[in-house]
Each structure stands twice: as C-alpha cells, then as structure tokens.
C-alpha cells in the first residue's frame, strides 16, 4: 500500500481528523500519549487520529507552522478548525472533538 501524503490523510471525508504533532524527546508529548490513545478509542468510527513525528516530518510541521510540541490540530474536510500548542487536558480535547463530530 502506498504511503499517503499528509494532505490525503487529513481529508477524511465526513470525519474530523485529530493530528498530534509530537517528538520522541518531548516530555509533555509522552504525557499526552495515553490521552490521545484513549480519545482514539472513545471516538472510534467518528474521529481519525494521526500522530506526526516533527523530527521525521519537518515539511508537514513547517507547513502548519508547528513551533512547539505537542501541538494538536483538528481538521475537518482538510481545513484546520482548531489548533493548540502544549499539553491539553483530556476532557478539554474530548469536548472540542465532541463539538465537531
């Protein structure tokens, strides 16, 4: 299977896409991992979750002006509808997703 481009991944029709820009060396990113995994389970079938390692995908990070990690973005039909840098409490992330599905 061909590897999809970032642009293809975020254009999930009818389903919002949560993108977690992270780095392996980032402490807050590691703290957010279980939160993001839980959200992926909670919203299974309603939300697509993509994790992007900024060290391996610098083009995507630059294109979306990711200046710190973790940075979370919610896309709908390929458009950014929400963005926040830094760790986000799980309930807050869940609320934002809930409002957009």
Automatic annotation (TrEMBL):
GO molecular function: protein-disulfide reductase activity
GO cellular component: cytoplasm
Catalytic residues in the record: 26, 29
Disulfide partners: 26-29
InterPro entries found in the cross-reference section: Thioredoxin, Thioredoxin-like_sf, Thioredoxin_CS, Thioredoxin_domain
Keyword Disulfide bond: yes
Site entry: Contributes to redox potential value: 28
Domain of life: Bacteria
Residues the UniProt record annotates as site (Deprotonates C-terminal active site Cys): 20, 27
Keyword field: Disulfide bond, Electron transport, Redox-active center, Transport
Domain Thioredoxin: 1-101
UniProt cross-references to CDD domains, sorted A to Z: TRX_family
Stored PANTHER family: GEO12009P1 (PTHR45663)
Family in the record: Belongs to the thioredoxin family.
NCBIfam families, A to Z: thioredoxin (TIGR01068)
Protein name: Thioredoxin
Organism the protein comes from: Pontibacter indicus
